Amino acid sequence: MAASRYLTKSRFKIACECPTKLYYTGKKETYADSSLDDSFLEALAEGGFQVGDLAKHYYPGGHDIQTLDSEKALEQTNALLQLDEVTIFEAAVHFENLFIRADILKKTGNHLKLIEVKAKSYSEDAKEDRCVSGNANITKKWRPYLEDVAFQKHVIQKSFPAMTVSTYLSLVDKNSICQTDGLNQKFKIVRNANYKGVEVSAELNEADVEHQILREVNTDIAANILLQEVDGKLDMNFADKVSFLSDSYRSDQKVDTRIGAKCKTCQFKASDDELANGMLSGYRECWSSEAGWNVADFAEQTILDIWDFRKKDSMIESGVLKMKDVDIDDINVKEDQSAGLSRTQRQWLQVEKIKNNDDSFWLDREALSAEFASWEFPLNFIDFETSQPAIPFTSGMHPYEGIAFQFSHHILCEDGRIEHANEYLNAVPGVFPNFDFLRQLMQSLDQNTGTIFRYSNHENTYLNKIVDQLKNTSDDIASDREELIEFAQSITHGRIGEARPAGKRDMVD
Questions:
Q1: Continuous segment of H or E residues that includes residue 367
Q2: Over the stretch 314-325, which tens digit does the pLDDT of each residue have?
Q3: How many other C-beta atoms can be found within 10 angstroms of the C-beta atom of residue 135?
Q4: What is the crossing angle of helices 481-490 and 457-471, to 10°?
């Protein structure tokens, strides 16, 4: 069987999102696939590469199966598993038409320990980070990761029935503190025409990995719940579902599933340009098959296009697919006591304009005029550039702790003049920039008393993060700590649930 028709971890994940996607995936010459050029996903993958390589260094003496050839990887893995004790990275395991590459597989006698490495943050004390709820259900947040683990356990148990298997997720412990400087820089992302991966510095030493920032979380209970679970959509238990999906993928047969709200984020939608260039749209094929739609139907706005609408599935189930067929009772419009439109008023305004073929804009002139009147010139516009690396850049930092390394400051004067007032950029390797960033921002904004505008809530969030960092640092690191905290709180407001009034110069979104 050709390796390209194996049901792998990534293909199983896609099928769990929607079984029909399994038919479209991997056909980049035929079906449009937006995930192939998603820069956000690419950035996440790069962080995952770094964490994956760091995890390997927690297991000295492990054997790395680097070949991409499936058959060679299987041969090398099976040879190593003849040893009584061995740790294998990217271990290849195969059963019938199922094939996995396990991140870390550790054999001890007759037992196999599977460790799936994820660049996802985890806190042992956080209620939201529990994999299994109190009523023994898999939590929604963790389901995709646990389905991945359960799939791998299923393949391993089928391939090695005489061995016991335990499963773990290796996650980024957000409560841990990095003990060394420059750890992130020792896992450098490298790219060329044929390769993207991590180049580990020769300077990586024992101290860098002695205090681990990754935590292994046992997932046996969760994996066993999933292995016994019956899929409500396919009406199959886990083993039967895997077998069914495997057979469907091997024979290249499409699995028809119901359309729904999940179609909103389908990566197999084709743009007009892609359609004009002969690419196919998996999304269109599904809706044509299910709803009998033609080309003209796809030119109309659908129920999926209504902003922040939470009844998409129930509306689709009742046969309402187009926005023009939505009634006001379907929206259940409620007024907002504050200024502006409520969520449901905004939804109905959108629907009503589609129904009436009205492309005019809506403007609350009275409220907007009152907002304008509250501003004080000159108007200050700031924008931050930040990072939250899984592997910290400097010692003393938590994984995913925020770093603010650049800002720009522009001023709009009352006479219409625009000035580039200031900017800050710290790109010095190994230097923690946040406190100097805030000093420079304070110096820049203190030049006038005008209203400050931020790009989004992002700037408010990061200034609150820096305040937290200042509160947890010593005077010898930031002797002006109290002054910096006072300034940051004067231009921000507290987080949701935080009893802190908005600052006297709170930034405007």
A1: helix 365-373
A2: 999 999 999 999
A3: 5
A4: 160
